[in-house]
Amino acid sequence: MAYISIESETEISPDEYLSNCSLREKKELAELLSDEHFTDGNFSPSTYLETEIVRLFNDIWDSRNFVTQDQLDQIRKKLREERVL
Length: 85
Hints:
Helix content is about 55%, strand content about 0%. By secondary structure, the protein is mainly alpha-helical.
């Protein structure tokens, strides 16, 4: 995680700070914010099912460069068939 000196009088905007973080630092920051419940509520699971859904979404997001539109359509179709969507 990048560290900012408390003694510094330089102001850094959150956007500027985030844009200078590495991917590892961004993930660490996201975990810290999640642990402190500073999330927007969209992906703050409180049950096992919600946790599994978030994990699935994260897996899809992590592999987004390899998932095809046809695969997404198949997932959507299956969920519609089961009247989930």
